[in-house]
Backbone:
């Protein structure tokens, strides 16, 4: 009887904890939504510093991953400084998102200083096949989707479910109200292809080690399990695979860079070059992360899975 009551108590505690987290996020959305975007950024930076101080485990992951990626390029002091900057950047990004979604004072258009390379996006969409947008967890990737929707693009983003269904419902509703449609990662291939058939944007973040079809490709010179989804969707649909990235400038505003479509060596029915094309994706992502390393999610265990 003791064991059974303990088992039922654990899920109950988890449900209560998740619900309290949900309420806290609802309150934060409301409060941060009242601020101007610069105040939201300052508050987010302070939040990032707080998490940096208290989250010893996550801090250790960042330092370990920086050591693996950069080796002797960075001193111990430089790694520590960069680790703190990573948490500050994530805090800023989170509060920027809350500011845009939770209030009416800030538009995504206010936060973007430059949208470079848009002509590549327009040229791809002129072909009528949609575009598979390759990006990563760099800068404020959610803001990038919101900005592009505000510019009139039809934006779809492939994402995984959050830890609490009510939170999923909340953010899906807020993002859809701003023009961003989320497609859950476990959805059918037809759901994702439909966006491309409608000549829309389909965004995927392809820089994490997750439980999806993947191959190994070098990232910072170390083999990393890398999703094949963006490449295979481009193969299957005939849509262009186009890299798009966002980073924050020193003045607090952001820059979006659209690169020319990737030249893929594989195609539908011919996936022999799949690993080569995925490796090309990783090289582009690495190049952008190296430019602004403090704005990438270094606490993610990117090299967790090792080749056999």
Residues:
């Amino acid at each position: 009887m003791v064991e059974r009551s303990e088992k039922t108590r654990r899920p109950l505690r988890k449900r209560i904890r998740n619900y309290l987290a949900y309420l806290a996020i609802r309150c934060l959305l409301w409060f941060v939504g009242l601020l101007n975007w610069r105040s939201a950024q300052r508050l987010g930076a302070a939040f990032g510093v707080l998490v940096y101080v208290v989250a010893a485990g996550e801090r250790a992951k960042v330092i370990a991953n920086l050591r693996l990626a950069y080796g002797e390029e960075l001193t111990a002091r430089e790694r520590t400084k960069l680790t703190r900057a990573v948490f500050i950047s994530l805090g800023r990004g989170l509060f920027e998102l809350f500011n845009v979604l939770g209030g009416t004072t800030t538009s995504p258009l206010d936060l973007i200083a430059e949208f470079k390379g848009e002509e590549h996006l327009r040229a791809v969409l002129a072909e009528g096949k949609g575009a598979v947008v390759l990006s990563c967890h760099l800068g404020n990737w959610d803001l990038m989707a919101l900005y592009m929707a505000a510019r009139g693009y039809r934006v779809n983003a492939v994402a995984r479910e959050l830890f609490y269904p009510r939170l999923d419902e909340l953010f899906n509703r807020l993002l859809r109200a701003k023009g961003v449609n989320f497609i859950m990662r476990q959805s059918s291939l037809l759901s994702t292809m439909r966006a491309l058939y409608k000549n829309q944007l389909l965004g995927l973040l392809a820089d994490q080690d997750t439980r999806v079809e993947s191959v190994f490709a070098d990232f910072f010179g170390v083999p990393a399990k890398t999703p094949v989804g963006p490449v295979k969707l481009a193969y299957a649909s005939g849509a262009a695979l186009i890299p798009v990235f966002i980073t924050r400038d020193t003045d607090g505003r952001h820059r979006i860079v659209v690169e020319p479509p990737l030249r893929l060596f594989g195609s539908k029915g011919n996936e022999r070059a799949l690993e080569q094309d995925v490796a090309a994706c990783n090289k582009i992502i690495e190049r952008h992360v190296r430019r602004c390393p403090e704005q990438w999610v270094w606490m993610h265990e990117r090299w967790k899975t090792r080749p056999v």
The beta strands are 112-116, 131-135, 155-159, 180-184, 201-205, 214-219, 222-227, 240-248, 254-258. The chain has ten helices and nine strands. The first helix runs from residue 2 to 33. Residues 2-295 form one domain.
